[in-house]
Amino acid sequence: MGAIDQEALARPRQEKWISVVAYGIAVIVVGILPAFLSSYIQGVITRFLIFALFSVGYNVVFGYLGLPSLGHAAYFGAGGYVIAVLKMHYDIDLFWVGAPLGILMATFIAAMFGILALRVSGIYFLLVTFALGQLLYSVAWNVKWLNTPGMQGIAGLSLPSFGTGGWTLDPISFYYLVLVITVICIYLIRKIANSPFGHALIGIREGEGRMRTLGYNTWLYKYFAFVISVIFSGVAGVLFGYYNYVISPTHLGVGTSFLPMCMCIIGGTGTLLGPVIGAALIIFVELFASIMTPERWPLTLGGLFVLTIMFAREGVGVYLAKLWNKMSHPYGSIKS
Amino acid sequence: MKKTIIPFLAIMFVFSLNFADPIENAVAAEPIKVGAVLNFTGPAAMLGPLFKNGIVMAFEEHNNQIAGRPLELIVEDGATDATTCLEKVRKLVERDKVKIIIGPLMGDAHVAIAPYIKNKKVLITTLYCGTLDMAKDRNWLIYPTTLVGLTVPVGWYAHDSGHRTMVMITSDYAGGHGFMNGVRLGFEQKGGKIVQEVFVPVGTADFGPYISTLKDADCVSFFVPNTGESSRLITQYREFGVKMPLYGTTLASDLPEPVMKELGDKVIGLQGQAAYVWSRDDPINNKWVAAMKKRFGQIPGGLESNSYAITSTILTALESTGGDESFDKLWPAAVKVKLNTPQGKLSYTPDGVAITDGYIVEAKVKDGMYVWDPIKVYPQVLDPRIKK
Amino acid sequence: MEQFVINMLNGLSYGMVLFLIASGMSIVMGAMNITNLAHGVLYMVGAYVGWTTAVKYGAPFVIGLVAGGLGAGIVGLVIERGFLRHLYKKPNEQVLLTFGFVYILTNLCLWVWGGWPRMPFTAKVLAGSIEIMGKTYPKARLATIIIGFVLAIILWWLQDRTRIGAMVRAGMDNKEMTMGLGINLERVFASVFFVASCIAGVAGVLGAQLLGVYNALGLEILLLALIVIIVGGVGSIQGALLGGLLIGVIDAFGKALFPRLAMFTMYFTMIVVLLLRPSGLLGRKA
Asked: Which end of chain C is more exposed for a tag (fewer CB within 10 A), N or C?
């Protein structure tokens, strides 16, 4: 009882200025600072934002719904491939054409694959989504139309144009474009997670039978959650295609599918910003480690995974939040 | 959410601080930065250190400095993956501001990088051949020659040995197609006929099913990438008891001495193309092999020779520009370089394609050691599609 | 006809290796609900240890098989006792942990054994080839088929006809009830994980007869194991055997008949099976 009282009392006042400060720093760090960094660092942060968006979207299925998908790269890559094919075969790099088509393609594939994958759950769901992703991978590898002559994948992509005549996009304005889109998407996902729909998903995760008894059409809920999650994968994939200059079958395959999964688990599954922290950790640790020791970086990255599991099992994000709680309420016992 | 955002911001902030650009050094003798994208992880992980040895050797021969400016080597791991290679090239160009990149190995990485690097005013090299298309951009040094140019001698040699029909086993990717088109071009130039071309995917573990389907011909030639696939193909070819003579490509670099020893009888008598042979008796080569052996404790092979020759080209060009590494000065100087390398006489076409000697070799045991013995030299080989 | 027999033998020998790779992973998945992504790396460790024993130190091939099995088994046991033990019923954490070990062990192997691939090796008696219907065929492949069948029978017997197998199956069906019967499930699980890792190691040495060993093998093998499990179904030796042989044979005929679609044929088979039976041909119902 005491704990609840304290929470009710402490939260509004203390957290108000904290959140003001927090958002202030946020605006400075991601909003202003990058403008003064080199284009390479801008690129790295852009990459981080894209994967943060990918992971937060993935988390809708993985965290809220509790279904381990090992095939989200298929939709991520599909978005990128649409950009690439438009550029290679039709010489179209207009954002207003590429982005909607890319997202539509990802959604369309997910609408089909979702029907197949949602026949099962648990570990079988992981295996089925893996299989479907690998099918796309092998198609992209084998079909000539989807490959630049001389390599597996499509090269020579560029930043999008907006049909605005003289003005073309440079890396820093692309960074801000990605930033705005990512923030909007994360805000939307937050809305979804806090809506009755989002609560229903958590209900299904905790006990599908119970929800069905309550009269929910759980299959439909799961199906919509899957498609919604994939829409964000598609957005991330489109941005990644523009960012990366190259799209290759690996971006459809299991290697890329592991990324959002690891990011979610490291940061904190089923929390809104956990995946963002996970994405930051993986992208920046891998980058630093491979700059420091080109031969031994996998040890550092693997070590990070193992240490996270052993010492911050619910995810680094949740761990840090608890730590923060302890520090800011030294006498309280508030649970996050 | 509010509870997670602050630690997150703290992390972001620390990371961004660390990422601030290195402050420009105001000292007069600013180093000449040379970037290198080599493979230290992934399927071709073993090749990175060897390529690096060759570069280090060339650096040390110039006492790590040109015209009073120290040389600085920035090595990146390409992880045997085209996307990673492109990422690392972008890092070298945009963060480290290098003007010289000793480039990635795989053909698909070249294709991925070429459009990006085209107008960046950076001199970039291949490590083991490249396509003729890349030469059009005029910023690639392509050593030892194009893919096709490297293997044309195999076609000539097979025909000279009295074979009239051939089956080809081709690894199904850009590099594989390039190498085997060279063999085809050479063989057909002399009037031979290709009766079958079997395409095998990159990373094939079991070649048995492909070997079982080979048609009858006078001889078989193959290219599959890297040591693992080549040695598996040779082992399985012998195990399945195919009697047709086998001609290989890029042999000396794919199958160095320790690998030959493990293959034993299966490799003895195998003939084919090699860019560089350490056992060739030649004063420049002998001296270099001795120096490499002393410095790194092992006999050098085709990979060290390639990166050494490329680096030597760049350093010689830098000497002639007086240490000016800007692309507009360095590129014209580089394609004019003429050197005597351990592989033979070296010069370049105006587009940056190297011209040097090619060898046909045979696996033999000499003084208890497995060696690739040069049995025929094709001097100053040039891709037949390039007009002189 | 000869061509058909040769293709069939190719498929069966490759399929036997696939079966051994997948069986351990499938049992661990079914019996313990553990997704062990490091399984492919254990295969690689086994193959490397076998190579060191049999080629570098020249021990007989059989000793190499045992050493490879034990080597992988010990590494597996360390992972289970040291880490996975704390993570029962936590699938997400298992995924991240074992994926971390994929990175770590792959890089350690690179450190210890270097990047140069190791050549295929086999026993002295199995080197060389014999004539089958007028075609030359390598003996090592025939031996792989036979050894694979023997191991399959032993494993099936362990699973279906012994007390420990009964305990494992009971644990799969109802954990609480089994523990209530006074069975130390933790010890059973540790032994299952150890045996599964040993099988991975033995598969590594047997597979090395065909494929040799190289550093990227861990992930390639993991993908193959997942494909076999999808086709065969989770949790049974019979499923892994059927899945392995089916994929092996289809892969061999696919390579021979449609060489440029090699990879596609394998994935296509997988999708067809998924459409017909989402939980695999012999899997328990999902």
From this structure: N
Please indicate, yes or no, whether residues B227 and B364 belong to a single structural domain of this protein. yes
Nearest to B22 by CA among B117, B100, B97: B97
Q: B201 CB near a chain C CB, below 8 Å? A: yes
- Looking at chain C from residue 75 to 114, which residues have their Cβ under 8 Å from any Cβ of chain B? 107, 110, 114
Domain hosting residue B243, numbered range: 147-274+357-381
Residues B159 and B189 placed together within one structural domain of the fold: yes
How many structural domains are present in chain C? 1
Tell me which chains share at least 3 CB pairs under 8 Å with chain C: A, B
**Is B239 in CB contact (< 8 Å) with chain C?**
yes
Q: Both B86 and B99 in a single domain? A: yes
B63 and B169 housed in the same domain: no
In this structure, is residue C57 part of a structural domain? yes
Nearest chain B residue (CA) to A295: B40
Whether residue B323 sits in one domain with residue B253: no
Helix, strand or coil, per DSSP, at residue B76:
strand
Sheet strands (E) in chain B: 32-38, 65-66, 69-77, 100-102, 123-125, 140-141, 165-171, 193-200, 219-223, 246-248, 271-274, 339-341, 344-348, 354-366, 369-381
pLDDT tens, residue by residue, B193-224 = 999 999 988 878 888 889 988 899 999 999 99
User: Shortest CA distance to A233 belongs to which of A36, A51, A82?
Assistant: A51
Tell me how many degrees the CA angle B192-B195-B201 measures, rounded to the nearest 5.
120
CB B355 within 8 A of CB B145: yes
Matching residue, tokens 């990324």 = A259
Give the mean model confidence (pLDDT) for residues C155-167.
Answer: 86
Is the confidence at residue A14, as pLDDT, over 70? no
Q: Is residue C10 part of a domain?
A: yes
Domain range enclosing C214: 2-219
User: Which residues of C fall below an 8 Å CB-CB distance to A?
Assistant: 29, 33, 35, 83, 86-87, 90-93, 95-97, 99-104, 106-108, 110-111, 219, 223, 226-227, 229-230, 234, 260-261, 263-264, 267-268, 270-271, 274-275, 278-279, 283, 286
Residue C129 maps to a domain: yes
Of the candidates B5, B18, B108, the beta carbon closest to that of A273 is on B5
Flag the least confident range among A2-11, A279-288, A327-336, B176-185: A2-11
Any C CB within 8 A of B234 CB: no
Is B206 at the interface with chain C, CB within 8 A? Answer: yes
Residues B38 and B164 in one domain: no
pLDDT tens across C91-119, in order? Answer: 888 888 999 999 999 999 988 998 888 88
Beta carbons of B2 and A190 less than 8 Å apart: no
Domain identity same for B94 and B215:
no
Mean pLDDT throughout B353-376? 92
Size (chain C), residues: 286
**CATH number, residue B309:** 3.40.50.2300
Q: What is the pLDDT of residues B97-122, one digit of tens each?
A: 999 999 898 888 898 899 899 889 99
Check if B263 contacts C (Cβ < 8 Å): yes
